[in-house]
Amino acid sequence: MSFYILTDAACDLTNEVTGEFKDFGIIPMNYSIDGKEYSYLPTDGEGIRSFYDAMRSEAVPTTTQVSLYASQKAMLDLVKQGHDVLYMAFSSGLSGTYQTAEMARNMVLESEPGAKIQVVDTLCASAGEGLLVYYALKKRDSGATLEETANWVIQNRQRLVHWFTVSDLVYLKRGGRVSATSAYLGNMLKIKPVMHVNYEGKLIPVEKVQGRKRSIKRLAECTAESFDRSEKDQLILIGHSDCQEDAEYLKELIEKENLPIRKVQLVPIGCIIGAHSGPGTLAIFSLGTSRDVVKK
Q: Which helix (H) or strand (E) holds 37?
């Protein structure tokens, strides 16, 4: 008997990536901008450009995690339809969504004690979370049970490697990740950070390089160095916050690395992640050997 895989809007999964799968759903997440609240689901890009244009015009969006009510309702609705559920949650290192999902699960089990629901912390963000969900869906559709799929996710989530850079440090300053002085000097000197998601599921800086083009090259280099070449026919996802040309350039670079990949696919970084990293964020996600930091 199959089961339903549920995740949240921080996954940045588009219909183009998930169109082949059934029994799969994404819980919306909310953000506010200019005093108005919006519900967000990953799409193929509609409306995202206006969101980033607003940020460029100094609008400051805020986000909220998936609510207890939304998690509980999503799980309960599926259980009442006869589904077992695997919920793959946004990294606990960046959000309280995983803890909320555990609370929601327990509440559903109180009213539906026969239900089978498992919640897993992906320790991933953006399309890193999405790529892990993608592999879980493939695992399930190959015949794995809920328990087998959940165990595979737990055993392999640390192999989901994220590499990020941003074009403007002011957005990281707003989120408290860099000081005002560092942001000012960094932008003046065209310093770009190269970041990754560590074993705790937190986004941390790894190194600083000068110039946008060099930072994009480092994303390709770091991906190639951490890539698990024993995994054939991999899917690599490149996420971007309204910087299509930079994403295409990164795709060209990674395709020259002679990695055993099936496809490199571009996806928008959505409003939930982009609210904190800003327009011009560029990221690349793949299965690697580990999340150990690549040496220069």
A: strand 36-40
Q: Is 279 helix (H, G, I), strand (E, B) or coil?
A: coil
Helix (H) / strand (E) element for 7: namely: strand 4-8
At which residue do the structure tokens 């060209």 appear? 252
- pLDDT the model gives residue 173: 59
pLDDT mean over 26-36: 94
Alpha carbon distance 106, 121 (integer Å): 16
pLDDT confidence of residue 134: 97
CATH 3.40.50.10170 fits 4-157, yes or no: yes
C-alpha pair distances (Å), 127 with each of 106, 198, 268: 28, 15, 9
What does the pLDDT average to over 188-215?
A: 88
216, 252 contact by CB (below 8 A): no
Residue 142 has pLDDT above 70, yes or no: yes
**Looking only at Cα atoms, what is the longest distance across the chain?**
60
* Alpha-carbon span 31 to 46, nearest angstrom: 16
Q: 71 near 88, Cβ under 8 Å?
A: no
Q: Tell me, what amino acid is at 220?
A: A
Cα 119 to chain center, whole Å? 17
Domain 159-287, CATH: 3.30.1180.10
CB distance 230 to 257 below 8 Å: no
Domain ranges of the chain: 4-157, 159-287
